[in-house]
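Tokens as discussed.
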């Protein structure tokens, strides 16, 4: 089958790997104009077009062009990877695109799609072993307690009961109050967000800003503990799968989605209170054999959650 993947580059490369592992012919496209889009589709003549990634990535004009595509053998599938967080923008894009099937990482978004009569299915995030895999420990990250991700200052300030905010209260605050050093990667806004929430001045030496996606594997694999916030009760962030695939030790805010796909205490550890965060941090610092076992189990547990399996799921809904 000939597959075209059109979307966020980080997702596209990993998803293309999944289809290639199944033996399909895959091409990534990043058109900027209708003319470029038409030329690429005409030359490729794909059997499947997959769009995916953040709604911020897409030009609505190109989606509308795809939505007005002539009837053909090409199937069009969209994978919503942000869920209910940006529901209005996402639904606008889906209505422009008119895909044959929509996949979403979010059960709440699935309900919205079903309520509008849109054929849709759940498809959680995954990882690709070409991007995230165990490797040598990097001295610069060894021993760190890290958080890698966005700070979301707008969401945090507007929605004090947002699940992301609850995650931060449980994971960040007790460690900072307890004198632990936490290294923040991926956003230049962590300092102001932590200050506004907890009146804590994060030292500049703990702030590492934006970093290449290709380096995330090194951070996840080399640091001591990866702190994992969650955005909703019934979804898992992409970072969970990538940390486990890298052989990293994940300490996540607890939710039902984790317990559906993984086993806390075996594949990763979860916390639902500040006190539990401190207890877990101290426990695994002092029980190296159990700590090592969880990291070993992480790699095994996530092997059924690669983009190869996600590609298989997409194809199975089209036949």
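Sequence:
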């Amino acid at each position: 089958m000939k597959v075209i993947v059109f979307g966020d580059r980080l997702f596209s490369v990993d998803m293309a790997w999944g289809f290639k592992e199944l033996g399909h012919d895959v091409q990534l496209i990043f058109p900027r104009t209708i003319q470029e889009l038409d030329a690429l589709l005409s030359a490729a003549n794909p059997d499947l077009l997959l769009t995916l990634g953040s709604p911020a990535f897409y030009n609505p004009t190109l989606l509308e062009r795809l939505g007005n595509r002539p009837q053909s053998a090409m199937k069009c599938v969209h994978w919503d990877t942000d869920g209910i967080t940006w529901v209005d923008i996402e639904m606008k894009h889906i209505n422009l695109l008119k895909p044959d099937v929509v996949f979403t990482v979010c059960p709440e978004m699935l309900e919205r799609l079903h309520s509008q009569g849109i054929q849709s299915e759940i498809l959680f995030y995954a990882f690709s072993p070409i991007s995230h895999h165990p490797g040598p420990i990097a001295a610069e990250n060894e021993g760190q307690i890290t958080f890698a991700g966005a700070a979301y200052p707008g969401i945090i300030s507007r929605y004090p009961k947002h699940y992301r905010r609850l995650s931060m209260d449980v994971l960040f605050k007790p460690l900072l109050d307890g004198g632990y050093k936490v290294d923040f990667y991926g956003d230049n806004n962590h300092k102001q967000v932590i200050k506004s929430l907890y009146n804590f001045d994060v030292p500049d030496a703990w702030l590492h800003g934006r970093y290449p996606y290709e380096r995330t594997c090194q951070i996840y694999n080399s640091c001591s503990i990866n702190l994992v916030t969650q955005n909703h009760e019934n979804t898992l962030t992409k970072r969970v799968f990538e940390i486990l695939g890298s052989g990293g030790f994940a300490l996540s805010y607890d939710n039902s989605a984790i317990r559906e796909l993984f086993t806390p205490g075996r594949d990763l550890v979860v916390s639902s209170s500040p006190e539990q965060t401190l207890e877990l941090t101290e426990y695994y610092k002092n029980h190296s054999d159990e700590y090592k076992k969880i990291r070993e189990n992480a790699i095994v547990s996530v092997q059924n959650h690669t983009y190869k399996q996600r590609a298989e799921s997409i194809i199975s809904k089209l036949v």
